[in-house]
Specification:
It contains twelve helices and eight strands. The chain is α/β, with parallel strands linked by helices. The chain has a single domain, classed as P-loop containing nucleotide triphosphate hydrolases (Rossmann fold). It has an eight-stranded mixed β-sheet with strand order 3-4-2-5-1-6-7-8, with helices on both faces. The longest helix is centred in the C-terminal third of the chain and has 26 residues. The termini are close together. Bound molecules: adenosine-5'-triphosphate (ATP) and magnesium ion. The site of magnesium ion has 5 residues, from helix 1.
Amino acid sequence: MTKCIAFHSYKGGTGKTTLACNLAVSLAKKGKRVFLLDLDVSAPSIQAYFNKEPKKWINDFLLDTADVGDLAIEMTHLIDNDHASKSEENVGKLWVGFSNPKKEEIYKIEGGKEEISKMQLLRKFILLREKLISDYEVDYILMDTSPGIRYWSINALAIADILFLTLKMGDLDIDGTKKMADDIYGSLAKFGAKPYLVLNRVAGFCMPNNTLNMSKEESDSITHLLMQQESDSNNRISKLVGMDVITAIPCYCDIQFSRKEFLTILNHPNHPFSEKINRLAEENTIKV
Ligand SMILES: Nc1ncnc2c1ncn2[C@@H]1O[C@H](COP(=O)(O)OP(=O)(O)OP(=O)(O)O)[C@@H](O)[C@H]1O
Ligand SMILES: [Mg+2]
């Protein structure tokens, strides 16, 4: 059965886009059929990770000037599918639906003269999900959304089976997150959606073990201490917000300070970030 996962957060810049893009590639590399949707229609940014200039966009679908087939951009070539060693049903596929970052296109769907009714939009979102399931036989639909309680995000959350609420550590907004968890996630959970916390940019892992001239025992005990701290802080946040933590991803300077966004999972498959993402892709709770 298809799993539809939405990445959302109360504050901006928590890593929704980065995590959605990398998880989409990881799942496709594992042989899944994946459709990634940029539903952050007010500030689209998935394009930065895929360097693609589509002819049709999610905007066109929402405005009824394109079908799902027009906005589906196949990106399977990015994955190293070893066809020879895999049966056809185990070959991963990746499609991406991009949102148009042009100001006038955003304005068109955000209240310009072609304004579409809210009910019509929700129907479009439901139709999009149905079409991806029937026409593309996808295992996963991953949706990147806008931060906060915005109309667009709520639509995406409404069609999701799993909600990943990302939190940027060091800049926690527990109150806002808790409020959103109570008001929105709580209601959606009543209809069967499963919400989880995704802690991102967790501090404490930047210390290079080998430059400190530590013995193996010292290095192991520091790693153990950091893991203990991580687990304590996960439990504390989980209790405060009232949601389980599905993963905690450290902050990596090479990702944070890179001038251009990139897909770590492809560029650096052995990077600890990629390992975290691969582990998330194998979590029982999201398995299809
Ligand atoms: N684990 C990480 N370690 C280091 N940098 C990270 C990590 N995750 C994300 N980043 C960086 O943090 C920045 C914000 O990430 P991203 O754009 O994915 O957040 P977002 O939640 O989608 O933001 P917005 O709400 O504005 O759409 C990016 O520069 C990204 O490369
Ligand atoms: Mg984003």
